[in-house]
Amino acid sequence: MLGIMRNDKGQYTEAVSSYEMSLEIYRRTLPEDHPSLADIYNNIGTVYNNMGDYSKALEFYEKDLEIKKKALPPNHPDLARSYNNIGVVYHNMGDYSKALEFYEKSHKIHEKALPSNHPDLAASYNNIGQVYDNMGDYSKALEFYEKSHKILEKALPSNHPDLATSYNNIGLVYNNMGDYSKTLEFYEKSHKIYEKALPPNHPDLAMPYNNIGQVYHNMGDYSKALEFF
């Protein structure tokens, strides 16, 4: 509990120390493959990921995964979470092929274990879409972002900020493809949600304004661009 609180506060060194103390206590009484150890390994991995120490994050996430693979059935949601965590680290490292490998392992479990409209499935599609976007495979990125978006449309109220983020992601892909009219369409949908959901001076409103302004700038419509910058 202390480790979680310190991690949430950004006190990463202290969080690792707290988790390592817990780990020492558990290891005196539990076998090395006990699921409780896996949870601590996972928590330490998360702290190192937050610190940007990706090699250490991988080390602990992989220890977590090895225990869970022995302890859980192959389609258990906790295994999906472990695969996803490793995918996130590889994604952060810019190793997109490895990120995709682990995101897809996580996704296959989610597809079997969850209903087709579950938000975790949307998050899974979104993660895969992000990797394809980073790899420059924009048609695949759109495919997965749109799958994610369809679930979110059913699962969330129409003015939910996660829907705004989803519209923004799709707009970003169209922008990367140079399709500025489609980019504007999705950026404006995102912007409308943010306008309804946030107070007028909220810093998160700056991003959609800037995005729309940048598109008009790319289109050569500088007077419209200035309205948004």
Automatic annotation (TrEMBL):
Organism: Rotaria sordida
InterPro entries named among the record's database cross-references: TPR-like_helical_dom_sf (IPR011990), TPR_rpt (IPR019734)
Start-end of each TPR repeat: 38-71, 80-113, 122-155, 164-197
Lineage: Eukaryota, Metazoa, Spiralia, Gnathifera, Rotifera
Function of the molecule: Kinesin is a microtubule-associated force-producing protein that play a role in organelle transport.
Protein name, as recorded: Kinesin light chain
GO cellular component, one term: microtubule
Subcellular location: Cytoplasm, Cytoskeleton
Annotated family: Belongs to the kinesin light chain family.
Key words, A-Z: Cytoplasm, Cytoskeleton, Microtubule, Motor protein, Repeat, TPR repeat
Pfam families linked: TPR_12 (PF13424)
